[in-house]
Amino acid sequence: MLINDTKSVDKKCLQRLHDLHFTILNWNEEMKSRNDAIESEWKKPIKREKKGDEQKQDTEIEEKEKRTELLFRVIGMKETLKAKIKVELWGEKFKTKEQVISKDMKIGEFRHYVLTYENILKMIAIYLRIQSNTPIILMGETGCGKTSLIKCLAKVANVPLTAVDVHSGFGRQDLRNIVKACVDKWEDDEKKSEREREQWIFLDEINTSPDIGWLNELVCNHTLDGAKIPEEIKIIAACNPYRLRKWDIKDEDELFASDELSKYVYRVYPLCETMKEYVWFFGRLSEVDEQQYIVEMTNQVKNEIPFASHKEFETRKGEISKKIAIAQKFLRTHLKDKVIVSLRDVSKCLKIFVWLMKHYEKLNCENNNPWICRSLNIAIGLCYYFRLNIEKRLQLSQELSTNGLFVKLLEQEVHKLCKSFIIPRGIALNQGLKENLFVLFMCIITTTPIILVGKPGTSKTLSFQIVRDNLSHLKTEFEKN
Ligand SMILES: Nc1ncnc2c1ncn2[C@@H]1O[C@H](COP(=O)(O)OP(=O)(O)OP(=O)(O)O)[C@@H](O)[C@H]1O
Ligand SMILES: [Mg+2]
Questions:
Q1: Is 449 left (phi over 0), alpha (psi -120 to 50) or beta?
Q2: Does the CB atom of residue 114 touch ligand 1 within 6 A?
Q3: What is the mean pLDDT of each run of 10 residues along the chain (481 residues)?
Q4: What residue's CA is closest to ligand 1, atom 9?
């Protein structure tokens, strides 16, 4: 039960709810403790002894157990399945002494997923709606966690999920095949209970298809070609909003000139009238929610970096999450909805950071600046800084460090890397080319998708050719820098 402020509720009433085994969430207190947790994480670098560290891990596991249990209770999960699901969700740390891990188990599939009260409440609301057979279309900004939430929820509920990425070429026959496979499975499971026969079909990005009209039938009427689909096969959909941009496109003609759809934030089609009735607004993350995700996502990174860096990571993790949060907020404010910054950027930034931390030995990085700080600077540079124009870059640098040190350190990294490339004769290694080389090379080695956008003649192809030649001939001396 969610109560704004438990102090305003009669004590006897609260006691009675406790006796009835209600879990009571005090929203105001929860908000306060979240703010305090973020503040304390950012304010003081915490130095912990090993023992304290282990203790903290135990409390983290306990907290995650508590939250998962809460979800299990709402879902009505069988006791016998809980242990298996927890290990499949969060990993071996959640294994009980007696538990045997079988080969077919996918261990820790969602270990990066942060379970906050915010997404627990969303999961509960969505789950109840699915169970009551009410059509549901999740609508929200890109990267706010719709797809991850449904996938994680299906795992928590132990329901087989068929996730379908709808796109403009997605045809009626594709949909028929998907539904048929699910109905066949449902028929095979004839002897099982209703609950065990349950399956979810998740139509992601539903409004990217111009033929949205015929998806309407499946989502809203639970029929396909007029034939009823079994009740145990639940249909869930997700989409981005059909929303106009707030900024004036005329100022930014380079990218969007003469493109009709450029006035919309997402290239999607409007929902049909019936669908609109079933939209569930996922919205966007509030600042404090996002900060909490950043803090928790950063904390989880520790398990992936080499053990030797754990101590240093503990001292600096507050600084890491704070800097990512600053960059995230900066881009959102200064680029408005020209670009969307979401949890996807946080996850990308941390992925690059982890990659660099893992390759410390190989990269042989002797330098006055600790490698952990250099890794963070490079990651922030790639995910946020290089997306800005010169003026905004300086502003971001000021916010990230005193005296704009960030930009100087990043320039050093760019310079060091470019020095190790063999540049064909007659080519001037100017700032633009250097940046292209740096961004391209880093994105290729960390397998981060990248699209270089620029006016004609801004060395896009040339930089790609240089990186390709250097990599394919193993000429680069990057490892020595
Ligand atoms: N609870 C969470 N914990 C950790 N990371 C998360 C969480 N939710 C989302 N993310 C991260 O954010 C990224 C984007 O999430 P997701 O793909 O679910 O967004 P989406 O709302 O489906 O976006 P889109 O509209 O573009 O499909 C994921 O790759 C994941 O790394
Ligand atoms: Mg998605």
A1: beta
A2: yes
A3: 79 86 76 73 54 65 88 90 94 85 86 87 93 94 91 96 92 92 95 93 92 89 94 95 70 58 79 92 83 90 90 93 95 80 92 91 66 94 93 93 88 90 88 92 91 82 90 59 47
A4: 145
Of 166, 162, 156, 163, give the one whose Cα is nearest residue 109: 156
DSSP summary character for residue 336:
G
Query: Is 99 among the domain residues?
Result: no
Closest CA to 42 of 301, 318, 325, 399: 318
Check if 135 has its Cβ closer than 6 Å to any atom of ligand 1. Answer: no
Q: Whose CA is nearest to atom 16 of ligand 1?
A: 145
Whole-number Å distance between alpha carbons of 139 and 282: 5
CATH number at residue 213: 3.40.50.300
Question: Do the strands 227-228 and 223-224 form a parallel or antiparallel pair, or are they unpaired?
Answer: antiparallel
Domain range spanning residue 474? 287-480
Total domain count for the chain?
A: 2
Max CA separation in the chain (angstroms): 84
pLDDT of residue 288: 86
DSSP codes joined into one string, 111-147: TT----HHHHHHHHHHHHHHHTT--EEEEE-TTSSHH
If one residue of 68, 139, 148 were mutated to test the ligand 1 pocket, choosing by the most ligand atoms within 8 A of its CB, it would be: 148
Based on its alpha-carbon atoms, the radius of gyration of the chain, rounded to whole angstroms, reads 25
Decide: residue 328, CB within 10 A, 0-12 exposed, 13-18 middle, 19+ buried. buried
pLDDT score, position 337: 62
Distance 10 CA to ligand 1 centre (A): 40
Integer angstrom CA distances of residue 321 from 192, 349, 353: 47, 11, 12
- Show Cβ contacts of residue 14 under 8 Å, excluding neighbours closer than 6 positions: 6, 24
**pLDDT score recorded for residue 48:** 47
- Ligand 1 centroid, distance to 461 Cα (angstroms): 32
* Separation of CA 54 and ligand 2 centre (Å): 35
Domain boundary among 284, 310, 345: 284
Instruction: Show Cβ contacts of residue 306 under 8 Å, excluding neighbours closer than 6 positions.
Output: 357, 358, 360
Calpha distance 301→112 (Å, rounded)? 8
